[in-house]
Amino acid sequence: MASLVERDAAVVEGLLQKLRNPETGLAVKYRILFSLRGIAGPEAHAAMLEGLKDPSALFRHEVAYCLGQRQDPAAVETLKRILKDEGEHPMVRHEAGEALGAIGTEECLAPLREHLRDPCAEVAHTCQLALQRIEHFAAVQAQADAAAAEAGTDAAPSESRYYSVDPTPAAPAATPLSQLRATLLSEEAPIFQRYRAMFALRNRGGGDAVAALGASFTAASSALLKHEVAYVLGQMQDAAAVQTLKEVLGDATENAMVRHEAAEALGSIAAPECLELLKQYAEDPEPIVADSCIVALDMLHFEQSGGFQYADGGEAAAAEQAGAAAVVASA
Predict the structure, then answer these.
(1) Is 45 labelled as part of a ligand binding site?
(2) 61 has binding-site annotation
(3) 62 is in an annotated binding site
(4) 135 annotated as ligand-binding
(5) pTM over cut 0.85
(6) Final residue before a domain boundary, out of 99, 119, 138
(7) Each residue of 154-198: pLDDT tens digit?
(8) Looking at the domain assignment, is residue 194 inside a domain?
């Protein structure tokens, strides 16, 4: 399970009450959610589930994401219900499938298999990736255990440069960049391998990696792949990606889940030219895009403030509510 910290029950209760308060804005709800994500125990888990009642599909999808990042098997039944609910927004269902892959227990397998051919392509492809992730790591762990047993040692834990549970492992670090680019941009390559190339490019970093990732927005037909590319560009926080992400956000014909990730990536990169753009699209007619820009403005404000951690257990969420509201109000 992901590393979680202990907090007093009063801290969790305070966060829950703020989350339930109808006056709490979306940006502050995000901070509360990310605070809860890092807190151990059933109380924090239950408080996160309250977020699934939120009218914002964007926020519900983020709750599902955070449940997966915690890798807590207690979330499996809830995630199974979300995945099965065809009345739920596809982006939320996608995130539930990905979260099941991140948790990766035996009980996650059946619901993922059930939706391998879901009518929604993004959901079907997510479930395919999630199953392959579970199978990959099971095989890797079996090999590591066998090698450790032969050597008389414990299996070494895997390491990641980024603090996220990724939908697939990265391709080997020694893979040439040209090969990673070719795999990512190949419409014939299996999506699992394209994802692996994408995460390897993220880990590689630098201008050539950013360019290869950016090229996928025109080369790829999969909205699922493109939304993940936007996400990793935000993780990289490289200003070289700003122009590409601006074009993606501004493309009204692009899938909303791709534009959403482009907006949040711009907020994370926090280059000066991102501010006016995010203010402009905070009024976008697509609610997911508009809400993403509101959250991204708060992220940008935080990054430019030089803060250490976006959510630190709840106190920051309350203390910065006025600042976040001021940024959004100026949009």
Answers:
(1) no
(2) yes
(3) yes
(4) no
(5) yes
(6) 138
(7) 444 444 577 899 999 999 999 999 999 999 999 999 999 999 999
(8) yes
